[in-house]
Amino acid sequence: MIAIKNLHKSFKKNHVLKGIDVEIRGQGILALLGPNGSGKTTMLKCFLGMVIPDSGEILFQGNNIIGQYVYRQSVGYLPQIAKFPENLTGRELIELMKSIKSGETREDALIDLFDLSSELDKKMSNLSGGNRQKVNITLALMHDSPLIILDEPSAGLDPLSIKKFKDFLRLEKERGKTIIVTTHIMSLAEDLADDILFLLDGQVYFQGSLSRLLELQMEESLENAIAQILDSKKKSPSHERYIEV
Amino acid sequence: MKDILRYSFYEMVRSRWVYIYTAFYLITTISLWLLSNDNSKVLISMTNITLGLTPLIGLLFGTTYYYNSREFIQMLMSQPLSRWNIFISVYGGLAITLCASVLVGVGLPMLFFGVLQTETLSIFLILLTMACTLSIIFSLIAFLVAMRYDDKVRGLSISILIWLTFAILYDGVVLLLLLVFKDYPLDQLTIGAIVLNPIDMARILIIMKLDISAMMGYTGAVLSTFLGKTWGTGLIILSILTWMLLPLLSLRRLGNHKDF
Q1: Taking a C-beta distance cutoff of 8 angstroms, is the pair B57, B23 a contact?
Q2: Residue B60 banded pLDDT, cuts 50, 70, 90
Q3: How do A28-33 and A2-11 pair as beta strands?
Q4: Of the N and C termini of chain A, which has fewer Cβ atoms inside 10 Å?
Q5: How many distinct structural domains can be found in chain A?
Q6: Which residue range is the domain that position A187 belongs to?
Q7: H/E segment holding residue A205
Q8: Among all residues of chain A, which has the CA nearest to that of B255?
């Protein structure tokens, strides 16, 4: 579905992406992990056209998408920072999204899921952080897109909403969607992900199944496995990469 | 595109500062009319106020509006929309609101006071047109500045500096040049200097329609001849269009290459 080839991106002297090569095939949930500054968000932003790569190729459904925008019709994206126009209401933002993207929408199901109906006519500036994130999720997922990208989805959500959201994502996976989640909460990744893509210093350090990563690191939890990778990296900066085919 | 424009307009028009800005024009126009009871005098005073204020407010609102909309623009970028479509729609919401503020704040009370039935109608129309034109030009420049500089303090400072340059410093430099080279014929230089500054252009266009232009002596005669000629009017229209088109082209160029 997505193929990224030799992707490079620098911001002035900061070389963030150093030749990323990734192939994401088929359905399921992929957790995109890595320490701060490893290039997770930059890679996703390159895919979404917000950041223009210096070199490399990004293919989506077989087509090179750099400089294109129509492909985003098939992508649902949840941004990390949900800062919407303060004077608009949630309902107006939903209407705006409906007018931008064509196709069937399912905002009612998401509004029910998060119990949002009483909040939708309030200005965004009057909503709590958690409710803003719920509106954010509703906007990202209201279209039935085959590819869903979620950047820190659980930020600001209460435990009940996180549980409901995880159940929703599992259902989406069963419906054949490809879901990419970036998070720093390892329990969330462990709970949801079928595969892990671990970035380190702007390169792919590991791509494969969760069980394989645990096996390689000889750990029982994802948190410990990641901590061990980062710890060994500190001791020896050069690292071997592992990519499961 | 028109939906983003509509919601950007809703976002702006519900801002408290837009109400304050509009109310300022309304109160000033009504107060001046009540004090003088003379449309011509009100228009002269409002010319001085709007020609200073519209560029300043355009720059300040434009810069802060862009910074506040940055995340919204990012969200729109993840949708099937071209960058140009996003920028022009978000900017359009701002420009329409600023123009509406001037039209409601200055235009409505003047209509109520019967400006349509007086000889000052043409001055009134030029004043509104130029106030809207300046709002469009300077808010567009502000958008560019904010897009170029991610640091809010830097962006706002540069915007204020641009206003100072065009509204105050520019005239000072031109006057200085006229003084230094007073022994030479300076007609072309004066006209060139006016055409290069949109605020001066607006001011001259309005003043030349007023009775006080007769008091401007030789300068008034030169400007009157210049504006009376087809090429003179053509040059002014061309200059206004250039002031709008150049920032628009820069917005397109910068927008297509910027990382968000």
Answers
A1: no
A2: very high
A3: unpaired
A4: C
A5: 1
A6: 2-243
A7: strand A203-209
A8: A50
